[in-house]
Amino acid sequence: MKDNTPEKITQEKVWGFIQLGDEDFDLEGLRARYQIDAESSAFYTAISRLVTERKIKRLGRGKYRRVKYVEPVKWWGTNTNEEPINFRFPRSYDDDTEFGIEDCVEVFEGDMILIAGTSNYGKTTLALNILGENLGLMPSVLMGSEYTASDGKITPKFKRRMNRMKWVNWIEDGQPRFNLYPVGSDYEDYIQPDSINVIDWISLPGEYYLIDNVLKQIKDRVGKGVCVPVIQKNEGLKFGEGGERTERYADIYITVDPYGSDSMITLGKVKAPKGKATGRMWRFSIVDYGANLHDIYELVKCNKCWGKGYVKSGNNSIRCDGCQGRKFVDKDIDF
User: Which of 65, 116, 272, 309 has the largest CB neighbor count within 10 A?
Assistant: First the structure.
């Protein structure tokens, strides 16, 4: 190209070439593609000025990246809903006990409520109860690979759960009030915007280092809805599989652990607390073959052993008889 001789190279022309190619590029490839003289000082001057103007950035060894232009967001004079939504958390309908999480947290459009729990201690029960509590709030979606069999039909266990949750109307005017998708991977691709999206559960075997990226994509796509992803957690650990990165995009982080033969939840990160929220705990039982909650009660650290589960007896440590080694007791118990 005769116009790409050293005396014809301009910054404007080089920038035009860069915009036509890939986001990442190298100088040797750029010169070869557009037949730019390797001795052109004007070419290197143009590249240097584009770096100074922050249109491109140097990655090293002749490699560069085009900087994406970002439009300023209009944050004033918009119709964005500033108020929390009337999101409901699970409760027991047979004995009228409840967690009362609504009293200590606020939920907004676009929020992520993440449930990280030990296997067989109530993750799915909580997820389905959250779904049932909020069917009237906005359109709803349930994703999961264990709700359906290989033939695409729902499993007997799932059907039994739904039938035993008699406090919720799953069908209205002959139509289901939520969509069920048999999704076991690429969860972010199936998010329904402006809806409640319950994902039970996210599995990334061998790739849990990707969990924060997956959760970010899910949150980015939920729009004015609410996403409720469920992940596995090993007993006694603070975070679910993937570690601290599982908390990064959560607005409310709930963990589920054993509590004797029952279960307990703990509120972790809460972005919009109404008062004391993080660290609050409740125990509960699961009844009706995993369908419903029962006997919900707030827990506090045992003030006899100070949450250790044991006390000193001479030179020995023995199980605390106040909490029976469980470290926590019902809130109104006093020793």
Answer: 116
Strand boundaries in 170-325, DSSP class E: 171-172, 175-176, 179-181, 196-200, 226-232, 252-259, 262-270, 281-287, 292-301, 310-313, 316-319
Only one residue has tokens 């963990």, namely 255
Residue 277 near residue 270, CB atoms below 8 Å: yes
Q: Determine, yes or no, domain membership for 82.
A: no
CA 268 from centre of chain = 13
Q: Are residues 118 and 60 in the same domain?
A: no
Bridge-partner residues for 219, per DSSP? none
Q: Are 249 and 227 in contact (CB under 8 A)?
A: no
- Which residues does 94 contact at the CB level (< 8 Å), separation at least 6? 287, 292, 294
Question: Does any domain span residue 83?
Answer: no
What residues make up the domain containing 181? 101-300
User: What span, in angstroms and rounded, lies between the C-alpha atoms of 269 and 279?
Assistant: 9
Rounded CA-CA distance 188/202 in Å is 10
User: Reduced to 3 DSSP states, what percent helix, strand and coil does the chain have, rounded to the nearest 5?
Assistant: 25, 25, 50
Listed in sequence order, the residues at least 6 apart from 1 whose beta carbon sits closer than 8 Å to its beta carbon are 34, 35
pLDDT in tens, the chain (335 residues): 445 555 588 999 999 999 999 999 999 999 999 999 888 899 999 999 999 999 999 998 899 999 998 888 777 777 777 899 999 999 999 999 999 999 999 999 999 999 999 999 999 999 999 999 999 999 999 998 888 877 778 899 999 999 999 999 999 999 999 999 999 889 999 999 999 999 998 988 888 889 999 999 999 999 999 999 999 999 889 999 999 999 999 999 999 999 989 999 999 999 999 999 999 999 999 999 999 999 999 999 998 898 888 898 888 999 998 888 888 999 886 55
How many C-beta atoms lie closer than 10 Å to residue 125's C-beta? Answer: 23
Q: Which helix (H) or strand (E) element contains residue 57? A: strand 56-60
Q: 232, 277, 240, 284: which is closest to 258 by C-alpha?
A: 284
d(CA 261, CA 87): 29
